[in-house]
Specification:
Elements (H helix, E strand, L loop, with lengths): L1 H5 L1 H24 L12 H5 L11 E4 L6 H14 L28 H4 L5 E2 L7 H7 L5 E6 L2 H11 L5 H4 L4 H6 L1 H4 L5 H4 L5 H5 L10 H14 L2 E4 L3 H12 L24 H10 L1 H20 L2 H23 L37 H11 L2 H12 L14 H8 L6
Helix pairs in contact: 4-19, 14-17, 15-16
The structure holds 3'-phosphate-adenosine-5'-phosphate sulfate (PPS).
């Protein structure tokens, strides 16, 4: 600073620099006025360019399809709901899903009779039924969903539902099942066999055993395009999050995530090339659904943000994710079910899968603990927790997990619910 007093031009330059800095600080405060729940360093470039000049959309419906990375999206949605104090359309009473696999009805939502069409967020599993969803969600709601390549999806589904799906139970492994699916699959076993064929088609509300007919498929694709504003692709999860963030006008921080509901590598089976081809034929409705929306996903990127911005922002997302993982996690990765120390964070285990979870660092202060807990909170625990917060007078959901709610809450050190 002493240089500033020596030479007049330098003095003026210093003044200009100081006022510029002050201006920047004020501006950055203005553009980032929304409560940032954790502070991750921002580059000077980011401070100069306001990331959200538009208005964040807060009425959002996410159709949670099965085995498509949808639990990670649900966690993002729940955190967003908490940040803005939004009302979530949660499963009623002891339901953990919105009536799935029954076709959705508004009465499956907790307190629908009292709250009516005033929910902001809806994202638990359901079988889509637009007219009933519209009774719950406001007319200006944004609808989106996610699809995954049916080949890895079927393998994931096979392992996860191994013990429940008759078609899976009676085959030795996924390759054997795919070698002659009709030997194991009986459409009459409707309740469980939905996971064994065209599960995404079913989740969108259609008949997963329908004939593969071009006219019918085109009609369904058109209807989905009318009902949904955006369809994401699990294989391009980070790209999907960036597109979502732009379309919803959310902050980058809103779409930072830790991968949830993944499996240990030793519970993944390898499909033979022949099996991969068979999935395309056996699940041809899902295959066509996926091909169609994979194309429109990339078209949408080109029409909106473009590949250059996409790449830049995907890198930013990964950098922030890494920062947050270092801040929150004991190990820098997900760990097997037997290595999860705090059983309150144990994800629901199913079939032959070892579903991974996370261990938090021991030295987190209160604020970071709150943030990190939410990043790793599995679907059922988070659903149950939000249900208790939103509906304090209702009976708490019995999770069927080893812990009772009270000890779950104590161990997670979550804030009181009323
Ligand atoms: N971010 C991200 N990117 C790519 N893939 C991801 C991501 N998050 C979760 N996953 C994978 O999604 C599978 C779990 O899907 P769901 O959470 O939808 O399953 S569930 O229906 O709710 O049980 C599960 O797949 P499998 O591991 O093959 O079973 C997860 O690994």
């Amino acid at each position: 600073m002493s240089h500033c007093h020596q030479f007049e031009p330098l003095h003026i330059r210093c003044l200009v620099i100081v006022s510029l800095c002050l201006g920047l600080i004020v501006l950055s405060g203005f553009f980032h006025a929304k409560d940032k729940s954790y502070s991750i360093s921002k580059s000077p470039e980011e401070l100069l360019i306001p990331s959200t000049p538009c208005h964040a959309k807060t009425n959002v419906m996410f159709l949670k399809t099965h085995k498509t990375a949808s639990s990670t999206v649900l966690n993002i949605m729940f955190r967003f709901a908490e940040r803005y104090n939004l009302t979530v359309a949660l499963p009623a009473d002891q339901l953990l899903h919105l009536g799935y696999p029954r076709t959705f009805l508004a009465q499956f939502v907790e307190d629908f009779e009292a709250i009516g069409q005033n929910y902001n967020i809806m994202c638990n599993h359901m079988r889509f039924n637009p007219s009933e969803v519209q009774k719950v969600m406001a007319p200006n709601t944004f609808y989106f969903s996610i699809l995954r390549n049916p080949i890895p999806l079927l393998e994931s589904s096979y392992i996860y539902y191994k013990n429940n799906v008759p078609a899976f139970r009676s085959s030795r492994d996924v390759n054997e099942y795919l070698a002659s699916p009709t030997r194991y699959y009986r459409p009459e076993d409707f309740r469980w066999n939905i996971y064994a064929r065209n599960i995404m088609w079913f989740d969108f509300g259609y008949d997963n055993n329908a004939e593969d007919n071009t006219e019918y498929i085109q009609a369904v694709l058109k209807e989905i395009e009318q009902n949904f504003h955006l369809i994401l692709i699990a294989e391009y999860f980070d790209e999907s999050m960036i597109l979502l963030k732009h379309v919803l006008c959310w902050d980058l921080d809103d779409v930072i995530y830790f991968k949830l509901n993944s499996r240990s590598q030793d519970t993944v089976q390898t499909l033979t090339p022949a099996s991969e081809e068979r999935v395309k034929a056996w699940c041809s409705l899902d295959w066509k659904l996926y091909l169609h929306f994979n194309q429109s996903f990339w078209r949408r990127i080109e029409e909106t943000i473009g590949l250059e911005v996409l790449e830049k922002e995907v890198n930013q997302l990964r950098a922030r994710q890494k920062e947050l993982m270092e801040a929150c996690l004991l190990e820098q990765e997900a760990v097997g079910k037997n290595h999860i120390k705090n059983k309150a964070f144990l994800p629901f285990q199913s079939g032959a899968a070892n579903i991974l979870g996370y261990n938090l660092r021991q030295d987190l202060d209160k604020r970071m603990l709150r943030i990190c807990q939410r990043m790793v909170m599995p679907e059922l625990q988070y659903t149950s927790y939000l249900h208790a917060v939103q509906h304090p007078h209702k009976r708490r959901k019995q999770l069927g997990l080893p812990l009772l709610w009270t000890s779950l809450q104590e161990r997670m050190q979550l804030p009181p619910t009323n």
